[in-house]
Design brief:
- By secondary structure, the protein is an alpha+beta fold.
- Helix content is about 35%, strand content about 25%.
- The chain is built from two helices and eleven strands, in the order H-E-E-E-E-E-E-E-E-E-E-E-H.
- The strands form three sheets. It has a six-stranded mixed beta sheet with strand order 2-11-10-5-6-7, with no helix packed on it.
- The chain starts with a helix and ends in an 8-residue tail after the last helix.
- About 15% of the residues are buried.
- The N terminus and C terminus are likely disordered.
């Protein structure tokens, strides 16, 4: 019996995970102009409180390249920027690790900066997670499609809001009109009822009522 309990305890310890998964988020694909700055956001969700040993790592793979390179690492409360890579003088850490923010800022963008940026985060003991990716596209002028899509979305939202307001006031008008009609109809019926009863009473009291045809 003791041996059985020991085996069950060992099995439970092996099944229960010592660390839980961490979920990492980056923003949508980014479009930016040559010479401008762009912020690449990275955050994570973890069941644990933010650890003092939280880490963030960024890597970059240029378009057409087979492998990526490490460009930034945050650990031990300090940021470290790769001093040999393409962003050595143009990368700034703008995140707040205590708020689970590992964002970076890329300055003075160039066409060669087109590529995929990957963010990885650890919040010990939550260290099991899938890195998140964000694509950066640098243009001399922002593509028309991006502006059209953005304008269409804004227009659709505004149109929906206007439609909701119009429907709201139309319903109020119809309800008020209905209430007014019912009120007028009710008072009209009462007035006719009173006049009819008065006429019937006069006919009964009149001595010549029997002469009426």
């Amino acid at each position: 019996m003791l041996l059985f309990l020991t085996l069950v305890s060992v099995g439970l310890v092996a099944i229960v995970p010592q660390s839980q998964a961490i979920v990492i988020y980056t923003g949508w694909d980014r479009h930016a102009l040559v010479g401008s700055d762009v912020r690449l956001s990275c955050s994570f969700f973890s069941w644990r409180w933010t650890s003092e040993d939280v880490t963030f790592s960024w890597s970059y793979r240029a378009d057409g390249a087979r492998e990526g390179i490490s460009i930034f690492h945050y650990t031990g409360g300090l940021p470290y920027v790769d001093n040999k890579g393409p962003f050595r003088d143009r990368l700034e850490f703008v995140g707040n690790p205590q708020r689970r923010d590992g964002s970076i800022l890329i300055k003075n963008l160039d066409y060669n900066d087109n590529g995929t940026f990957t963010c990885d985060a650890k919040n010990p003991p939550d260290i099991v997670g899938r890195p998140s990716h964000v694509r950066l596209l640098v243009f001399e002028k922002l593509p028309v499609q991006a502006g059209v899509i953005t304008g269409a979305i804004i227009g659709a939202v505004l149109g929906l809001l206007v439609l909701i307001v119009v429907i709201y006031y139309l319903m109020r008008f119809l309800v008020a009109r209905r209430v007014f009609s019912l009120s007028v109809s009710k008072h009209g019926k009462k007035g006719k009822g009173k006049e009819g009863s008065q006429q019937r009473q006069l006919r009964r009291k009149s001595p010549f009522s029997f002469l009426s045809f």
